[in-house]
Automatic annotation (TrEMBL):
Protein name: Rhodanese-related sulfurtransferase
Species per Swiss-Prot/TrEMBL record: Antricoccus suffuscus
Domain of life: Bacteria
InterPro entries in the cross-refs: Rhodanese-like_dom (IPR001763), Rhodanese-like_dom_sf (IPR036873)
GO terms assigned for molecular function: thiosulfate-cyanide sulfurtransferase activity
Span of domain Rhodanese: 37-134
Keyword rRNA-binding: no
Phylogenetic classification of the source organism: Bacteria, Bacillati, Actinomycetota, Actinomycetes, Geodermatophilales
Keywords associated with the record: Transferase
């Protein structure tokens, strides 16, 4: 099938993002930054490792490649990661806020109610002059 004969998508990516944004809690950069040192909040960076190596991350953020999020958050999965299984609020972010909106919606669909994402993502975070640290590498758990 060539691109000219491909059937139209039922929903495009921007429609999915818009729907997710209407259903998840979106924090401004300032609202998110106020939570950085809160022990009851876990920042979850869903960007890939190349993005983290190149740009750094929010201090103390836990990195989960977007493709593994559902597996790492599910206690029944062989890939489960303990930091994602506790009752802390999860604040997700990506580069620009689209992937994190979709990811937050997915976590809500899985039954996690205390999840949000950062409006504008890490790009907005950096632009606002919020703290950035080099990528923290987490051991296998």
């Amino acid at each position: 099938m060539t691109d000219n004969t491909r059937p139209p998508l039922k929903k495009g990516v921007m429609q999915l993002v818009d729907e997710a944004m209407s259903e998840v809690v979106t924090l401004t950069v300032d609202e998110a930054a106020a939570k950085v040192n809160d022990p009851n909040v876990l920042f979850v960076d869903i960007r890939d490792s190349r993005e983290l190596d190149r740009e750094g991350q929010v201090p103390s953020a836990f990195n989960v490649n977007r493709g593994m999020l559902e597996f790492w958050v599910d206690p029944q999965s062989p890939y489960f990661k303990e930091p994602l299984g506790d009752d802390r609020e999860k604040v997700l972010y990506c580069a620009g806020g689209w992937r994190s909106a979709l990811a937050a919606k997915t976590l809500q669909d899985m039954g996690i109610s205390n999840v949000s994402h950062i409006e504008g993502g890490f790009g907005a975070w950096k632009e606002a002059g919020k703290p950035v640290v080099d990528r923290e590498r987490h051991g296998k758990k």
